[in-house]
Amino acid sequence: MDLLEYQGKQLFAEHGVPVPEGRHATTAKEARDAAEELGYPVVIKAQVQIGGRGKAGGIKLANDADEAEAHAKAILGMDIRGLTVHEIWVERASDIGAEYYAAVVFDRSAKKPLLMLSAAGGMDIEAVAEDKIARLHVDPLVGLRAEEANRLASDSGIDPDVSEPVAAMLAKLYDLFVATDSMLVEVNPLIVTGDRQVVALDAKVTVDDNALFRQPKVAEMRNPSAEDPQEQMAKERGVTYVKLDGEVGILGNGAGLVMSTLDVIAQAGGRPANFLDVGGGAKAEEIVAALEVLLSDPKVKAVLFNIFGGITRCDEVARGILQALEQIDVRVPIVVRLDGTNDKEGRQILADADAPQLHTAKTMLEAADMVVALAREGAAA
Ligand code: GDP
Ligand code: MN
């Protein structure tokens, strides 16, 4: 679960990481009142779960109440790379001397938290040269030792005058990372102010979804309006769904089968639009829920149902698909590949049905070729 900047900063403040004082607002009037309370200059910041807000015009400086209100009005409702701004954060403006980058991420391959620190902050970290980022793996059983944090600070090439407070901030960020079951805690920029204070000016926190049951305070921060609409819909309906970039919608029963389906789609020259596992589900309502999530993505031009019948019987799945089609209006072609228990019966049920958008296939590769061709026709139409 990704937190908004102001939610991350709330956690920072609770863990002793210095952040500028600020207020949350959802209307221009609230932003004006917040600015009056804080004192000028203030910065009005769009709260969306995406970086690059500054470049997109989602961060603006205001010197008086009228300016604060006008900026808030312009930012609320703004579209930032596909996300609409519904919330803003009004913050005391900072006097920036230097901008650094700091992060704690979970490094899956090393199975350890990884600390990163760079003197090249304030920009897209992907654009920073590898050798400009100092790295340190932390042994989770030992924790971060003070001398390690100090060494990372000196390796990173930041101003030695502030390496002590920066190392102290890293220690607090690491504690926060562990205490909140996070997968990522990123501060970009971490700034040194004109009067040499070290402050977190931005906050990006991703908490492990699997730990939310024991992070009730974080779970309460869930903000449906800021999430991707398909992923939000999937969560509400209990569907395992990951959105991807392509145009071929995929539904399969079982995560392994769905993963290999992604590969065959690529092999057939197409691009998967998503990963969707219906599990053992064959019931019409489960298929309706999955199809609705999938088809709410306008990029989807054709759908591949890939079912391997084991305990789940293919004839039941076929009936479920037909019932689902009665309930929802499907305008894109659907290729159904049924193999395994009762597959012949299943294909026969689909062939007998009066459903012009349905196509059937026996093998995965045949189905992939068909669906990729249909998606191409759909995209060209
Ligand atoms: P992002 O673009 O979404 O990553 O948003 P950030 O919160 O990182 O802000 C982007 C940039 O805006 C920062 O790197 C700063 O250069 C600038 N900025 C943000 N807040 C302030 C502030 O209080 N004072 C000044 N002078 N610049 C700010
Ligand atoms: Mn940033």
Give the tags:
alpha+beta; Dna Ligase, domain 1; D-amino Acid Aminotransferase, Chain A, domain 1; Rossmann fold; 3 domains; binds guanosine-5'-diphosphate; binds manganese (II) ion
Total helical segments: 12
The total number of structural domains is 3
Distance between the termini: 37 Å
CATH class of the largest domain: Alpha Beta
Beta-strand portion reads 25-35%
Please characterize this protein's 3D structure.
This protein has 381 residues and is α+β, with helices and mostly antiparallel strands. The protein folds into three domains: 21-92, ATP-grasp fold, A domain (Dna Ligase, domain 1), CATH 3.30.1490.20; 96-219, 2-Layer Sandwich (D-amino Acid Aminotransferase, Chain A, domain 1), CATH 3.30.470; 228-380, Succinyl-CoA synthetase domains (Rossmann fold). The chain is 36% helix and 25% strand. Helix 11 links the parallel strand 17 and strand 18. The model has no long low-confidence stretch (mean pLDDT 93). The structure holds guanosine-5'-diphosphate and manganese (II) ion. Manganese (II) ion is lined by residues 51, 188, 202.
